[in-house]
Fold this protein.
Amino acid sequence: MSPKENKIIPFIKAIPKNIFSGFVVSLIALPLGLGLAMASDAPPIAGIIAAVVGGITVSLLGGSHVTIAGPGNGLVGVLLVAITTLGIESAYAAIICSGILLLILGFLRLGKLADFFPSSAIQGMLAAIGLIILGKQFHIMMAHKIAREDTVDYLLEIPFTINDAVHYRDTGLIYAAAAGVISLLIMAFYSKIRNKYLQLIPAPMWIVILSIGFSYYFELIVLEGNPIANNYMISGIPEFSEIISQIPTVDFSKIGSLPFWSSVVALTLIASIESLLSIKAVDKLDPEKRRSNVNRDLKALGLATVGSGFLGGLNVVTVIARSSVNVNNGGSNRSSNFFHALFLVVFIVLFSTQLTRIPLPALMAILVYTGYKLASPGNIKNSFRIGREQLLIFFVTLIVTLKIGLISGIVSGVVVTFIIHIFINKSLSLFVRNWLKPNVLMYKEEDVEGSYYVSVKHFCSFLNYYRLKERLNAVPESQDVIVDFSLCEFVDHTVMENLNNYQELFAKRGGYFEVVGLDLHDTDSKHPFALRRLLPVPNLIKKSLTKRQTNIENLARDYVLSYFDKKEKEVSFLNHFLFFRTKKINHISNQLAAENKDLTMFDIEFSEGEFIAKEVVRTTMLFIKLNKAIPEFTLDREGFLEKVYAFAGFKDIPIQNHEDFSNRFYLLGEDEEAIKHFFNDDITHFFESNPYYHIESNGEGLLVFGKERLASIKEIKALYDFGKRLKHVVS
Amino acid sequence: MSLKPFHTIGIGVTFSPNLKANIFEASRLAVMFQSKLVLIHVGTESAEKMEQFQNILEPFIKQSLDYSIVFKAGDPVDVILSVSEEKKINLLILGALKRENFLKYYVGSIARKITRQANCSVLLLINPSVVRMPCRHVVVNGLKDPKTKHTIASAFYVASSLGAEKITIVEEITEDKVTVKVDDDKSLRKAAILKERLKMRETSRVNAIIENIPKDYTQDIAIKSQPIFGKQGYSIGHYAQISRADLLVMNAPSKMTFWDRLFPHDIEHILTELPTDVLIIQ
């Protein structure tokens, strides 16, 4: 047993960093909150209220560490239905009831509820929600408000709206549509531009800043009114004092009606699914590798939703995009969620009049982009790659959700999945007979050093995955686990996907997770196993090399290096680098390695953030394997961004007698003494007299890279040369 | 403690393709345990049947097998149970059925009824064979139950008689014994400590049982103990299956009500999916 650590001091030390990340998150939460509320036909401030109440309640009472709570994308569709059928005052009552249901779910420990839905059905449902958001808001983005009965009609009318927009005569509308289109372009291309000063402010905030700036420009310099049509500006943002004095009345009179309760159930369902999926995804990003208490978080979210409903706010859920922004900006504990709420309050108190200068189309562009990301063709392609039947599940759920409603949609997804499973196995009895059996056996092998063995019998699908999950959750992620499916006749896609998640989680936290016994199924014609195809099959057909690859190949011949062009997913040697703690490595490719493998160069693809804040980065890196232990440190150029980070709690380590080095380089690390000792004259001189690179040590190896993009052949040569000499100096 | 539990072995025989294999298995056991063998045939007596049985028994009669054949007409369950009572049978051998196309075995309705009602030990054979299959690995339950002591002792007796190399004592610990629910890192740590403590307690309990068994039966066999957190009766079968045990030895169920059959537990799980040969000790 480890001794009890003092938790208060690290917590206080981390507060500056969390204030900073909370601030960045509030920048994205403000426009999103306004937009999500307006998309749900609620007053814009309702979204901010949800974020503030959620941020404060969940940070104080919740069980997760780096998540951010606030109004969610997934709920827009349901809230829209609730508000149009019930009216806003009864909708608040529905929100409060769904909060109570969430609270009950938390107390009944039903955090596992989300496991009972097949992942393709959830994907389909989310895509449908994306289309609902996109379909409705696209028209507002193009300054062409329309009202239709059916969500599908909104989608079908998109071409007509574009046509109308091209032929606008009214300058007010032209400006409004232009604001929308430009905002959409900002959302779409923001992640493509890797400039650290630009990236300090999230894309949605850029839209807000630019549009407010634009309005002031006309008012103060051109001395004209805002050219954007008045009815396309945000209205109804109250002063802070008004929010408090004008708490809306909540109308519980429809509590006996069926539409009321179907809204409540849908709200609860989507809120819990969205929150649980987000918490799971954010846990993977947590730099301190903590495990969230899901049920406690559900309780906190439920309570926050009740509070938010009474104050005139929307449902509170855990949101993935904002949480990932939080992690990427150094959020390390719950206080960042709290500070995000606090900053939102500050914004509303100080800037509520400025917010009315934001054009509606600009705000809706953010939502259109969100909707597009939810329903992006990439998701559909992914489903198809896993199997044709997944595509069927996906589309059935999608279409039923669009045509009838969310609850029918997800139910139809579950039913279709089950029917497909029966069809594939040609057996209903396999499921009926074995559903209730405790088919998962786990024990710690006594003879082998601490490895857990899990055996699964009969079948393992979304129907009984919770049993397997319960067992796997009881294993610390730093241990070894072997999951054996050799007695299992059928494993579905939901399970395979979740196991893949576990695999990543265990790899990140120093454990080992292996799935065995599935090869058997491939050869056994009795059990067609299309649904376990998820294990990535290596591309057997050799593609022709690109020009860059041929050049690298030539270079390899020149320098007598070995070259391997295929994608490699096994990147465990990179796991312990600080740089990758909040990033997910997708694969490395185009490896160049020296003969003794101590110097490896490779192209790497990794992603930062999730969902709309997700950015995929490809770059070239050099890895030097060292034969001796050195202290862990990060070395980078001294610059503006580092000054910001210094404010946020990091400290530069000065090296004595090397003024130039200390001025030009920024050196971070925990063990200050060892680092000072390590940076002797030779090493500091080497860095002073060579080009800049970002250099990181994980104690046994060095990671060297330049820009956050793929390196050219020349740069590869320079990097290789630098690495060779660095290795020489260090060892 | 008497460690010669099986004085009389009984087996129900019908004219099925498995007849010879069943009789061979039973006779072999009778010879090994030096006990009396009773063949029970549900039906009327005839010289022809008698001769057939005796032909099959031929090789064992040479090994001085003490046997008798009982013919009695009536309901199979009643006949076998009543004859077992009359003849004071200690061990009843029953054959299991194989599910079509699958390598899965289950106990047919007659055998199941007998297993539930029998007052003697029952051995369920999944794969009776004419040629002797060696029994290498015996798995026995180590439940916290008054019967367990006797069961483990019998398992050692059987294992040493059959020349098994290894005995694994599985202590099934029900999940509700672990009072801590795993939610986060803290509760996970707590649960892990609690589990470790439960394991130690179970292992020391089982070790105390083993110490009371005469050394003759324990010294030549590798003994392993394996605590498992899981559903009673089901986990042990699953374990026996994956550890490729040749014989699973279990306590007899204490009581059997209507509800037990509706919501199967303990032995009922084993009867629906027989992992290997199962010996239920009364």
